[in-house]
TrEMBL record:
<feature type="transmembrane region" description="Helical">
    <location>
        <begin position="355"/>
        <end position="377"/>
    </location>
</feature>
<feature type="transmembrane region" description="Helical">
    <location>
        <begin position="289"/>
        <end position="312"/>
    </location>
</feature>
<keyword id="KW-1133">Transmembrane helix</keyword>
<dbReference type="InterPro" id="IPR025291">
    <property type="entry name" value="DUF4153"/>
</dbReference>
<feature type="transmembrane region" description="Helical">
    <location>
        <begin position="55"/>
        <end position="76"/>
    </location>
</feature>
<feature type="transmembrane region" description="Helical">
    <location>
        <begin position="258"/>
        <end position="277"/>
    </location>
</feature>
<keyword id="KW-0812">Transmembrane</keyword>
<feature type="transmembrane region" description="Helical">
    <location>
        <begin position="219"/>
        <end position="246"/>
    </location>
</feature>
<keyword id="KW-0472">Membrane</keyword>
<dbReference type="Pfam" id="PF13687">
    <property type="entry name" value="DUF4153"/>
</dbReference>
<feature type="region of interest" description="Disordered">
    <location>
        <begin position="1"/>
        <end position="29"/>
    </location>
</feature>
<feature type="transmembrane region" description="Helical">
    <location>
        <begin position="139"/>
        <end position="159"/>
    </location>
</feature>
<feature type="transmembrane region" description="Helical">
    <location>
        <begin position="324"/>
        <end position="343"/>
    </location>
</feature>
<protein>
    <submittedName>
        <fullName>DUF4173 domain-containing protein</fullName>
    </submittedName>
</protein>
<feature type="transmembrane region" description="Helical">
    <location>
        <begin position="179"/>
        <end position="198"/>
    </location>
</feature>
Length: 473
C-alpha cells in the first residue's frame, strides 16, 4: 500500500491526519488518521458490543489488517493465528490471534515482531494526541461528500424496502450505557492504533544465558553431586516398584507427593544443562557426566508420569492433572533434545529454537482440544465419579454429560440427588449440563456449535418425554 508520512495514502487524501508539511521525525511510528480508526470503532461496536465474542473477533482482526495494508502471505499467517478463535474464544486462542496479527504485519522475523511490541507504547501515546486526528473539512468534503451522500440515500431506500437491512441498521443507543460505551469505543481506538501505524523497524534480539558464576570446575563437581542424588532417587523408586509402598502410605498419596516435585527437578535439570553446555570442551569428564545427568532426568520425568497415572486412577482427571501430563511429556521431549544437542555438538541457539517451536506447537494444538469434555467423559465413566467437579467444568462439558446420561440413565438421578438436577430441563442445577448458547452469528464458534449439536442429538436418543427446546438453537 502506498503511504505518505507513514500513513496509508487513502487516509491522507481523505483530509485526515497530518499533511505533507507536517512530517513526523519518526514516521514509522506515526499513527494513522481518524477515518480508519472511526471505521474500525463503528465496526467494533457492531460486532462486539453487548455480545459474547466469537467469529466476530476474527472478522474484526481481518478488518484491522486490511486497513493496515496487509497482503500476500501475511493473510496465511493471520489465518493460522485466527483458527483457534474460530474454534473457541479463550485466553490461549486470543493470544494466538494477537500473535498472528503481529507476525502478519511484521513478517516472520522475530526482530520485526520485537520492533512492533517496542513501538506499541509510543503509538498509543501518539494516538491520544488530538492533533493527530483533526479533520480538514475542505479536503474531506471534496472527496467524500458525494459518495457518502449517495450511500445514505440508497440506504434509506433499502431501509424501507428490506426488513433485514432495517434490523441490521437499527442503532439502539441506551443513554444509561453511553458512558461505558464511550469507554469501549476509546479502547478500540487505542488497541487498533499500533496496527495501523507504519511497519516497525527490526530489533536484533540478543539472548544471553545467565552465567550463575559457573566455571569448568564447579560444573564438574555439580554434575558429580547431582548425578549421585538422582541415583539415590532412582534406587528409591525401584525399591517401591519391587517391594511396595511404606506402611500407611497409599498409592494416591505417594503419587501426589512425588509427581510435581519431580517435574520441577527435571525442568531445573534442563536449565542447568544449557548453562553447562559451553564448558564441555574444558574437561573430558564433563560430556559423559552431562549425558548421564540428562538420561537420569528423562527417567525421572517418566517416573513422575507413572506417579501421575496412579494418582489419576485413584482420583480421576482434572485440569491440573491433564496439564501436568502434557508438561511432563514436553519436559521429557525437551530433555531428549538437550541430550541430542550434547551428542551432536549443536549450540544453545539450536536447542532454544527447537524447544520454543515444540512448546508453541503444543500450545497451538491444545487450543483445539475440548479438555472439559474429555475430563467429564473420563470421570463419569468411573464407578464413583466426582459429580461436584464434573458440574463445575463449564458448558463445554455438556456434550459429554449428555452422551453419558444417554448411555447410563441412572446418572440423572445421581446428579439430581446432589444438585436437584432435572436432566436437560429449562432449569438445570448442574451448570456444566447446560449447552452453550449461540444467540447471534457474531457469537458463533465451532466448538460451541458442535457441543450444542451433540447435546441435541443425545436428547433425541434419550426419549425422556416431550421434546425439549435446545437453548443453543
Amino acid at each position: 500500500m502506498m503511504t505518505q508520512n507513514g500513513l496509508p495514502r487513502f487516509v491522507t487524501q481523505a483530509g485526515l491526519g497530518p499533511g505533507p508539511d507536517e512530517s513526523s521525525p519518526e514516521p514509522r511510528t506515526q499513527p494513522p488518521g481518524g477515518l480508519a480508526i472511526l471505521a474500525l470503532v463503528a465496526l467494533g461496536d457492531w460486532l462486539l458490543w453487548d455480545l459474547s465474542p466469537g467469529l466476530s473477533l476474527v472478522i474484526f482482526g481481518a478488518a484491522v489488517l486490511a486497513l493496515a495494508g496487509l497482503r500476500g502471505r501475511g493473510w496465511v499467517t493471520y489465518g493460522l493465528g485466527a483458527l483457534p478463535v474460530v474454534d473457541l474464544v479463550q485466553p490461549l486462542s486470543l493470544g494466538f490471534l494477537l500473535a498472528g496479527m503481529v507476525l502478519a504485519l511484521a513478517g516472520p522475523s522475530p526482530g520485526r515482531a520485537l520492533g512492533f511490541l517496542r513501538a506499541v507504547p509510543l503509538a498509543w501515546v501518539q494516538g491520544l494526541h488530538p492533533g493527530r486526528l483533526r479533520l480538514k473539512p475542505g479536503a474531506f468534503l471534496r472527496l467524500w461528500a458525494f459518495p457518502l451522500g449517495g450511500a445514505l440515500v440508497i440506504l434509506a431506500l433499502l431501509f424501507e424496502a428490506n426488513p433485514l437491512i432495517e434490523k441490521a441498521l437499527t442503532f439502539d443507543l441506551d443513554l444509561d450505557d453511553l458512558p461505558l460505551r464511550l469507554v469501549f469505543w476509546a479502547g478500540i481506538a487505542l488497541m487498533v492504533t499500533p496496527f495501523l501505524a507504519a511497519p516497525p523497524e527490526a530489533v536484533t534480539p540478543r539472548l544471553r544465558l545467565p552465567g550463575w558464576g559457573l566455571n569448568p570446575g564447579s560444573v564438574l563437581r555439580a554434575l558429580v553431586v547431582f548425578n549421585l542424588l538422582l541415583a539415590v532417587q532412582m534406587v528409591s523408586d525401584a525399591s517401591v516398584a519391587i517391594g511396595g509402598l511404606p506402611q500407611g502410605m497409599s498409592h494416591a498419596t505417594y503419587a501426589h507427593r512425588g509427581a510435581y516435585p519431580l517435574l520441577a527437578t527435571a525442568l531445573l535439570a534442563g536449565a542447568f544443562a544449557l548453562a553447562a553446555r559451553p564448558f564441555l570442551a574444558e574437561n573430558r569428564w564433563l560430556r559423559p557426566l552431562l549425558l548421564l545427568w540428562l538420561g537420569q532426568n528423562i527417567a525421572l520425568t517418566l517416573s513422575a508420569a507413572l506417579r501421575l497415572q496412579v494418582y489419576i486412577q485413584a482420583w480421576g482427571l482434572s485440569y491440573l492433572r491433564v496439564h501436568a501430563a502434557i508438561w511432563m511429556a514436553l519436559v521429557a521431549l525437551g530433555l531428549g533434545l538437550c541430550l541430542w544437542q550434547v551428542l551432536r555438538g549443536h549450540p544453545n541457539a539450536w536447542m532454544l529454537r527447537r524447544t520454543a517451536a515444540l512448546g508453541m506447537g503444543t500450545l497451538y494444538a491444545c487450543a483445539f482440544v475440548n479438555f472439559a469434555g474429555i475430563i467429564a467423559a473420563e470421570n463419569l465413566a468411573r464407578p464413583a465419579p466426582d459429580l461436584a467437579y464434573v458440574c463445575g467444568l463449564g458448558e463445554m462439558a455438556s456434550g459429554a454429560i449428555a452422551e453419558k446420561v444417554a448411555r447410563n440413565p441412572s446418572l440423572g438421578p445421581d446428579l439430581a440427588e446432589v444438585y436437584d438436577f432435572t436432566p436437560y430441563s429449562e432449569v438445570i442445577g448442574c451448570p456444566a449440563a447446560i449447552p452453550p448458547r449461540i444467540d447471534h452469528w457474531q457469537e458463533w464458534g465451532f466448538r460451541a456449535w458442535g457441543v450444542a449439536r451433540k447435546v441435541e442429538q443425545n436428547l433425541m436418543v434419550q426419549e425422556v418425554g416431550p421434546t425439549i427446546e435446545n437453548p443453543a438453537r
